Amino acid sequence: MFQSGGTTGTLSWTPSTSNKTITLPNGTTDFTATGGTGQVLRQSSAGAAITVSTLASTDLSDASSIVLTSNANTYTAGKKQTFTADATNSGLKFGGVSSNPSSLNEGDTWYRSDKHAHYFYDGTAAYPMDLHVAEQSIASTITWDGTPPTTVVNNTYEWSQNYKTVTARFSLNYTNAGTTNTQVTIALPADLPTPATPAGLSGNNIYWIGGTGRLGTNTSGSTGGQVRGYLGTDGSGNPIFVILGSSSLSAKTASLTITYYAQ
Question: What is the mean pLDDT of the chain?
Answer without folding.
Answer: 88
